[in-house]
Amino acid sequence: MSNALILGALHASSTRLPFFDAHIPAGFPSPALDHMEHKLSLDELLDINAPHTYVVLVSGDSMTGAGIFDGDHLIVSRALEAKPGDVVVACLNGDVFVKRLGRCQKSYVLQSEHPDYAPRYVLDDDELMIWGVVSHSLRNHRPHA
């Protein structure tokens, strides 16, 4: 099961990073790329709408089918309306999860993206709160660092 640990809200930043506006092959880079530098804001790239955006740390493997893995950081927006099909941070009866929001007739369902985990149907006496919609995920590709 994928749980979410809320790390905190994001704040707007004026820092702009170098951005090479080209498709980079996974093989050898082109020498022509040296002349394509622009500046890019991570706020713009990640749709950070402070103070409505926060970061959560994922634990568990129930969302691997959606490309979300244990230890990933998720960018979550409280400003977006959650719709069926969205990956959301949901609080169900006091437990916080990262799940795909679904609809089954008149009820909601929180769906894992891993075959070992069954969907969780939201029953009439359940308390469901959607804490935000996941817009992006960040993964450390140097976990030993």
Walk me through this protein's architecture.
This protein is an all-beta fold and 145 residues long. The chain has a domain at 53-140: Ribbon (Umud Fragment, subunit A). It contains one helix and ten strands, in the order E-E-E-H-E-E-E-E-E-E-E. It has one helix at residues 42-45; strands at residues 3-9, 16-20, 37-41, 53-59, 73-77, 87-92, 95-104, 107-111, 120-121, 128-138. The strands form two sheets. An eight-stranded antiparallel beta sheet has the order 1-4-5-10-6-7-8-9, with no helix packed on it. Strand 7 and strand 8 form a beta hairpin. The radius of gyration is 18 Å and the shape is globular.
Rg measurement, Å: 18 Å
By CATH's scheme, which homologous superfamily of the domain at 53-140 applies?
Umud Fragment, subunit A
Oligomer: single chain
Largest sheet: 8 strands, antiparallel
Strand element count: 10
CATH topology name of the domain at 53-140, in short, is Umud Fragment, subunit A
Globally, the shape reads: globular
Features:
single chain, 145 residues, mainly beta, Umud Fragment, subunit A, 8-stranded antiparallel beta sheet, two-stranded antiparallel ribbon, 10 strands, 3% helix, autocatalytic cleavage
